[in-house]
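REQUEST ID: PR-0412
SUBMITTED BY: lab tech R.K.
PRIORITY: routine
TASK: structure prediction, single protein chain
INPUT:
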Amino acid sequence: MKYRKISEIKLLENNPRTISNRQFKILCTSIKNNIDYFEARPLILSDRTGKLVVIAGNQRYKAAESLGLKEVPTYLMKNLTEETEREIVIRDNISNGNWSFELLANEWDSIKLKDWGLEGFPFEIETKEQEVKEDKQIEICDKCGKQI
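STATUS: complete
OUTPUT:
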């Protein structure tokens, strides 16, 4: 793992992964409050094209940039083929496994789970209208003053 300047790193063009404004805010809060966790999950880079391109962690890159971070934790994977890069892009964003809703309901704080971004748990499930309305709201980051 190596910290690199954000200015040295390029986002993946045509990244198929997107997140909502609500999810982005949760991610920013997570990075701001848990920088050690961010370091433990560095941005995965490829240098196949001669540039340092994020192939896993594009949303974390955007959140770090929005928070005004100048450097981010990275891990460079060398000698990748384009096919392997594409596989990593998809594998990094697939959630494998299922939740035990019984354990979550009995052992975890439902408000914190929601704040941390757990979607679909049978507590206060938002309607699509509420999600769309929330996604359209624009907020400014307290730390850096940028739109999030």
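NOTES: The two ends are 27 Å apart (CA to CA).
REVIEWED BY: pending
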